[in-house]
Specification:
With 116 residues, the chain is an alpha+beta fold. The chain has two helices and five strands; from the N terminus they run αβββαββ. The protein has a five-stranded mixed sheet. The chain starts with a helix and ends with a strand.
Length: 116
Amino acid sequence: MNLRRSGTSWERVAEEYLLARGAKLLERNYRALGGEIDLIMKMDGATVFIEVKQRATTQHGTPGEAVNRAKQTRISRAALMYLKQNKLLDSKVRFDVVEILDGEVRHIKSAFLYRA
């Protein structure tokens, strides 16, 4: 199985889920400073950085639990670069996780705080 292709398809599922709930897509798969952000969206008046995680079972924990401290730090660094590049440093910011478990989509708002 091509993991990148599989990941992209789950990211599209998450994207469609959020768009159907009023979010506006700003960017997909943004990369900077050794980190990647799956989706950057505008919703609830905030710039939202979203990590998408999928698992078939909870045998190794929930998908959201896979977004550990190191991953949060890489996402935070990339997010700061995005905010700087787009002159959005004064905007409201949020870090969310969309977990997909056995085909069920769950949106976890404010899943973590910025980590330097």
